[in-house]
UDP-N-acetylglucosamine 1-carboxyvinyltransferase
Amino acid sequence: MNSINISGGLPLNGEVAVQGSKNAALPIIAAAILCKDITILHNCPHIVDVDNMTAILQIIGCKVVWEDNSLIIDSTYVNSYEIPLELADKMRSSVLMSGALLGRLKKAVIPYPGGCVIGKRPINIHLEAFKQMNIGIYESAEGLIANTSQIKGNIINLPISSVGATENIILAGVCATGTTIIKNAAKEPEVMELCRFLNKMGGDVRGAGTGTITINGVMKLHGAQINIASDRIAAGTYILAAMGTRGKIILNNAPMNHLTALLEVVNKMGGRYMCIDNQLIIDGTKAVQAVKNVETSVYPGFPTDLQSQLLSVLTVADGESMIKENIFEARFKTVEWLLKMGADIVLAGNKAKVTGVKGLHGEQVKAEELRGGAALIIAGLIAEGNTNISEAHYIERGYQDICKDLEMLGADISYD
C-alpha cells in the first residue's frame, strides 16, 4: 500500500482479535535454523517484517510454507552464512540471524541492520558479547564477519538491558560449549517467548523474565511447534485508538498480563477496562483526561513502542500532559504532523509537553516509522475531516491488517 485514507470523527465500537506478536515471531523464526528439522509457528503474524525474515531463510537454504496463520519452516539444509544486504537493510531484526547462524554454522556475515530510523540503536553491544563467547569479529566491505571454531559460554554483563542483544546471545549460546550467563538481561515477554521455544526444541534456558538468564549449552536441538503469543503493542494501539475516539471495544486474545503499564495510564486518562476470560473490554467513552507524567522504560514499564500512539490521544485530552522518552532519542517524529493537524505540543529534549485541544483536523501527513505511522492513524481517527497518510508501507511492517481491523470496529479507513 502507498497510503491510507481516513475519514475521522467516529468512535470505535465492536470486537476484534489481536494478532500474533511481531517482536516474538522474528527471533523465533531466526531460532528455527538452529535445528536440522521442521518447526511450526502457529498464530504467526503475516506482516512485511516476517516476510522479509522468511525471505532470508529461503536464501540461506530453508523451505518456508504458510498454512493459514501457521508458518512452517524446514531448516534441514542451511547452506549460506550471508545475510543479504537488501533484506537486512529493511529491518533491524535481521541482526538476530547472526546469533542463529553462528549457532548453526559458526560463521555469519552481518550487514548493518536497517528498520525504523528512531535512534542510533547500535549493535556494538551484540558484537562485544560475541567476542566474550570466543567469536571473532572482522570488518569487510559487505559488513561484519563473525566466525569461530567453537562458541564458548561466558558471563556477560550487558551495559544496558537490550532486548536484541539478549536474544542474540541466547541464540548463539544455546548450543555453545559450557554455560552462558547474561546479567542485566532484558525481561520483555518476547524474550520469554524465545526461551520457551528454544526449550521446546531441547534447549536449556533458565531465568527468562528476570535480569539474569542462564543458558546451558546443549549438543543438538530438534524441531518444535509453538503458538505465538498475542502482540501487546498491536493490542495497545487498538486500546489507545478506542480511548482517542471515545469508543468501546472488545479485544479477543489480549495479552492482559503484559499490558499493566498501559492500563494504568488508561485508568488515569479516565478509561475503564474489564477482563473476562481472554477478552479485554475497553471503555473510553468519557472525555480523555491529561496525564501529568508518563515515562517510557524497559519492561515492565511503559513501552516506547506505544509512546507515539499515546501522544496522539493526549493531543485532545483535558489539560496538560508530559511524556518523557527514555529509550530512543528520535521518537518524536510524529510531532511535526500532529502540529499540522492542530495539536499543541512543545518539545524540549526528550520531553513533550502536550496541551489538549478541542479537536484535530484532517491533513495530508507522512509515516516515517512503524509506530509513528500507527500514531498518525489514531490521530486521523480522532480528527474531523479527511486524513491521508503517505509512506504507509512502514505500518505494514508490524500490523497484519490494521485497516481491516479498524473497519470492523466502525472506522472509515481504507488503503489507497
Observations:
- The chain is about 30% helix and 25% strand.
- The longest strand covers residues 3-7.
